Amino acid sequence: MSFDGITLHTIVSELQSTLVNGKVNKIYEPSSNNLIISIYNKHTYMLNIDTTANNYSMYLSTHMKENPFSAPNFCI
């Protein structure tokens, strides 16, 4: 699946309806290809961004994944 302007427009319109005026609480990096941004907007949402080469995805969740004990340099 290509990541073109149509795909980007669809992602932005879906995320705007939920995350407008939200506050970023924390940023997690459970693995080298996964980034989780915790956003509070009346509820706490987890924006999961997975950048694996053959299966990339971006989705909202309310459940937190388990994080490593030591934080990577990006999160510090």
Structure description:
The chain has one helix at residues 5-19; strands spanning 23-31, 34-40, 44-50, 57-61. The protein has 76 residues and is an alpha+beta fold. The chain has a four-stranded antiparallel sheet, with no helix packed on it.
In short:
The chain is an alpha+beta fold. The protein has one helix at residues 5-19, and strands spanning 23-31, 34-40, 44-50, 57-61.
Helix content: 10-25%
> What amount of the residues lies in strands?
35-45%
Flag low-confidence runs.
none
Strand arrangement, major sheet: 1-2-3-4
Q: Which SSEs are present, and which pair or pack?
A:
Elements: H1 5-19, E1 23-31, E2 34-40, E3 44-50, E4 57-61
Antiparallel strand pairs: 1-2, 2-3, 3-4
Question: What are its keywords?
Answer:
76 residues, 37% strand, alpha+beta, four-stranded antiparallel beta sheet, flat, single chain, 20% helix
